[in-house]
Amino acid sequence: MQDQTDWLTRFMELVTVTGKVEVRCAMRAPWAIEYVRAGAQEMPYHVVLTGRAVFENLDSGATCELRPGDIALLPHGSAHVLRDGSGATPGPTKVRSSGSLLVNESSGDGEAFDMLCGRFVVAPPHDRLIRSYLPLELVVRTEDIAAATHSLPQAERLSRLVALMRAEAMDDEVGSGAVLNALSSALFALTLRAAGEAGQAHTGVLALAAHPRLAPAAAAMFGDPARAWTLSELAGLCSMSRATFRRHFQASLGRSAMDLLTDIRMSAAANALRKSTSSTEAVADLVGYQSVSAFRRVFTQRMGATPGDWRQLHRAGTE
Q1: 206 falls within a domain
Q2: What pTM, to 2 d.p., does this model score?
Q3: Does residue 106 sit in the same domain as residue 159?
């Protein structure tokens, strides 16, 4: 499990995600809230505090019931709806300020529902990685702490984090906004770990995390992306033949090992171009390319801009 945790941590560091809690919804049935598609670098999320709701992803058509302690995350920013599920016409809502949060309230007199709504912001161009390697939606359940403690330790930790977020939102103490945002950033990492542990995703990095035999190859690529890895070397780390490794990796990730390695390298290169004054040649060498022209070609294909244009665009956006 340590290898899996290590490379998942590196993945989450690579994509540079920050979290922000924005709205608390304190609803009374009947109610319904529609959310439009989020921006390119945004991932909406919802944390259920009390009550139950029906969640529907309008892109995938997936629906499920959300219960206290559940976290719903939409890595692709999909349009979605949450409703009480009664089928009755929703009542009017009003919005008021409460400390650092907006509070959305309905005027119904039915069952109470309370949740926190926020978003994770992904530094560009890593939204592409998120959409390539995470599913349309993730719903992680943390209600049963006793069961989680024995079988799903990550869910148990996530449950404790949700309880802390609930206390901060309810008590509205001085500095609660800053604390909630800091907890929100931790929420992303723990949600991915818990979803991977629960085997939620059929393909992508979470499915890869659930395949322990492939963990050594994933850890090697994330740990040393500049190395000139071959398929035979990666297969050997997993004690598999090339053909078996290729088949299992493709089935778990939905992409080949070399595709993943290239994406890791280009993401690391984008971060290096953003944070340093190193030449393109130095960045190419940093991520394992001896040929600068080959690096420029692959970077442009994956990122939609040349290394030079990417650096200038970033500087223009931060000046």
Answers
A1: no
A2: 0.84
A3: yes
